Amino acid sequence: MRLILLGAPGAGKGTVAKQLTAIDGSVQISTGDILRAAVKGGTELGKQAKAYIDKGDLVPDDITIPMILDRLKEDDCKSGWLLDGFPRNKNQAVKLHEALKKENMKLDIVIEMELDRQIAKNRIMGRRLCVNDNNHPNNVYIDAIKPDGDKCRVCGGELSKRDDDQDEAAIDKRHNIYYDDKEGTLAAAYYFRDIADQEGIRYITLDGKAGVEEVADQLVKKLEA
């Protein structure tokens, strides 16, 4: 399968991405990883991107999208790919779709993780890190993984907060981009939703409020439908 996964920060995209790639062996593709690899490898596009990155500017779409296409053509993507972190706005969605069609690269599925903005914010601010293992899931706003007071629910270790998880201004800035349904990431999702039937793309929505197991069940059932 060739998929695009869209969801607000805090919606649990990482968990869903792991579930998807485990189902069919597709490769999770992060645009951040693509940029870093191209810059490190000194490719022509990487050199162009580096010039913008060094100035603190965003890399233009006419550089980013060709990088993405080059990555999707690599051998490990032949069995499928999952694009994570792109597009971030409607303009990128349109340009990416046009570029994929030009390269005869069929997009099969777009998945939107639906989640109320305040819930998404709470989930970010509710994350806690275990001193013994950061992979132990603890979140004060999610009943299924709520810690035991200030102790890890898995091992009883001390818990701490990430500073960036408590930066409300930064969270709001990221969510402003995602929840903008006119030009932002939600607008990108709705672009694919609106052309899905005519382009032969499956548009799937998942209820992000559900727990990990429930989301996994939703996903499997909708993929099999």
Can you lay out the helices and strands and say which pair or pack?
Blueprint: E1 2-7, H1 13-24, E2 27-30, H2 31-41, H3 44-54, H4 61-72, E3 81-84, H5 90-102, E4 109-114, H6 117-125, E5 129-130, E6 159-160, H7 168-178, H8 185-199, E7 202-207, H9 212-224
Parallel strand pairs: 1-3, 1-4, 2-3, 4-7
Antiparallel strand pairs: 5-6
Helix pairs in contact: 1-9, 2-3, 2-4, 3-4, 4-5, 5-8, 6-7
Describe this structure in words.
- The chain has 225 residues and is of the alpha/beta class.
- It has one domain (2-115, 174-224): P-loop containing nucleotide triphosphate hydrolases (Rossmann fold), CATH 3.40.50.
- Helix content is 48%, strand content 13%.
- The chain contains nine helices and seven strands.
- The protein has helices at 13-24, 31-41, 44-54, 61-72, 90-102, 117-125, 168-178, 185-199, 212-224; strands spanning 2-7, 27-30, 81-84, 109-114, 129-130, 159-160, 202-207.
- The strands form two sheets. A five-stranded parallel sheet has the order 2-3-1-4-7, with helices on both faces. It has a two-stranded antiparallel sheet with strand order 5-6.
- α1 (13-24) packs across α9 and α4 crosses α5.
- The longest helix is centred in the C-terminal third of the chain and has 15 residues, at 185-199.
- The protein is globular, with a radius of gyration of 18 Å.
- The two termini are 15 Å apart.
- The mean pLDDT is 92.
